[in-house]
Amino acid sequence: MKTLIRNAKAIVTCDAQDHVYWNADLLIDGPRILKIGSQLPDPYDEVLDASGMFIYPGLINTHHHFFQTFVRNLKTIDYPNMTVPEWLDKAYRVFQLINDEVIFYSSLTAMGDLLKHGCTCAFDHQYCYTKSTGKAPVDRQMEAARMLGIRYHAGRGVNTLPREKGSTIPENMLETTEEYLQDCERIIQLYHDPNPYAMSQIVLAPCQPINSYPETFTETVKLARAKGVRMHTHLGEGENEIMLARWGKRTLDWCQDIGFIGEDVWYAHGWELTPEEYTVLGRFGSGVSHCPGPAILGGFPILPMREMMEAGVCLSLGCDGSATNDSSSLLDSMRTAWMMQAWHSKARSGCISPYEMLKIATVGGAKTLGRTDLGSLEPEKGADLFMIDAGKLELTGTLHDPRNLLARAGVTGETALTMVNGNVVFRDGVLTGVDEYALAQEGEAVCTRVLREPCEAFWNLC
């Protein structure tokens, strides 16, 4: 079916030439874009009136922990007033209780929030496997993604090292390397689609080097490269002191030695990386997902994004887990990241422009996930986009520059419309494929029964 999006006030393409089309149409055929131009004469099956709208490529989230969406807004797990070990100690007491119902409804919550704020393709780092979840988390997340219509890249995480050997992971959140690998093979077979316009893919993603045996990572590298899937982990977020004591080397050196590096690998956070390590990442073609929310809440160093880009590091944006962000809005993360860079540039030259931040959240995200079919609005790319209403009073005086508008003017509210794969999934405040209020009631009941009441009874946390 062909859909004509007609008479957009502006279409910001984020293509290699940075085209902006004014007073233009966009023609979609099924999942792909066919044409962009003024008063397109081509036949179509349906029309969407985009009068007064600015259109942007769908944002791409490259690091999140959906399961943490039900561990938000808790005074007793107050991340800004805790050290990371203190936070982990309290948070993992709650994480141990999570079951597959929590996985399903927390994922729906995060995915819905992402869609409402312009994110059309999301990666989630799912490392919460408990006795109650079994091996179901990715299956339940795929179910949620299909209901909402979001493109979903599932990161199959794992923790294998017990506390007595130096990890921070409770016993009932541990798996063996063998059972992890078996489940990876299962979900790759079920859900990994390498074709253009794929709606689901799998990433092998051990949680972090300090919480797993080395063979967990070495075997991940073997399996991922045999199956042609990408890899991901946390790196450079304060663990280097432990890695130096344990292995006599920094984490990136450890990853390089075992082959957990390359164009098919990206890392979350990276605020502890050095300029020399930026060069290493650039040489190998590896990426870093910058998560500004938890960086601010944790008081961590601001990434020198310009310096990293000049070294060849592929940068993208992530919301990160809601336990350290409390939000799944990538528009908000984009605004926050740009403001951080504006402050940072006062001490170091070369601020990232608001438009460059948009391209990091679109083109950079697509490159990070290996999606040559996404990230920009141009013929043959996937029809993933969002619209904002440029006619609203609060945007008066800004409309001459739609490329820089979002991050600079703080456009962080709900979109007017979000489209994924040629399908409208959010419009005029409504998620089109589900009864949002019924799901919210069901999810709240699950959160109370599985997490809040046991926490109150046993740990007085919630």
From TrEMBL:
Keywords assigned: Hydrolase, Plasmid
CDD domains: ATZ_TRZ_like
Top-level division of the source organism's lineage: Bacteria
One Gene Ontology molecular-function label: hydrolase activity, acting on carbon-nitrogen (but not peptide) bonds
Signal peptide start and end residues: none
Statement: the UniProt record of this protein carries the keyword Hydrolase: yes
Domain Amidohydrolase-related: 54-425
Protein name as catalogued: 8-oxoguanine deaminase
Gene source species: Pusillibacter faecalis
